[in-house]
Amino acid sequence: MDIQKRVDSLLKEVPPGVTVVAATKTRSAEEIMEVIDSGVKAIGENYVQEAESKFRTIGKKADWHMIGHIQKNKAGKAFEIFDMVETLDNIKLAEILNRSACAKGIIYPVLIEINSGREKGKSGVFPEEAVDLITGMSKFHNLKIQGLMTMGPFFENPEDIRPFYRLVRRLFEELKTAGLPNSEMKYLSMGMSDTWRIAIEEGASIIRLGTTIFGPRKG
Ligand SMILES: *Cc1c(COP(=O)(O)O)cnc(C)c1O
Hints:
Blueprint: H1 3-13, E1 19-23, H2 29-37, E2 42-45, H3 48-58, E3 63-66, H4 75-81, E4 84-88, H5 91-104, E5 108-114, H6 130-136, E6 143-150, H7 162-178, E7 183-189, H8 196-201, E8 206-209, H9 211-214
Helix pairs in contact: 3-4
The chain binds pyridoxal-5'-phosphate (PLP).
């Protein structure tokens, strides 16, 4: 099956109000263009350097989401490429992004990444740390916190991830009610190729799909 057919049947199934982000790591600029031409409006890259070369070819034909961990020395470059960072999880990165946004005179959207599985060595803050991070960011007037993102642990049985999505949804609702500064809980990014239907049932408004759109990754 080709990309166009995959995207067609996907977009028929995704409810209105849910944004599909094509997870494009390892995919070529040509493949990504095909996805954009098929009607996907947002793409997500994991590495600044990989995104940079594709950005030179593709440019602003799509919304660029950063969905991987950002090293601090790549933050300035990330800011230039991406329309939104989904993986903000520390105050230092927030400070750098805020400074770039301030210099450009824009308000830059970010999502807070939650390590919902409390996994060692994984990105994201633990759920109970989110309020402190958001509060600590209240002085960064050029950032707008627009929601939460989570990966969750990998399971053989996709259904096993549901409690983790549910936990992040609950946090999302709590933060919405809390009304913290610079923070508007608008997007909940969770769900990948084998879990996106579950994620939508649990309240996701952004899903990030690689394999569903492109087929299996090579190598
Ligand atoms: C690769 C990736 C995805 C998509 O993975 P698939 O299983 O191929 O759909 C989603 N989110 C992040 C952060 C990723 O790195």
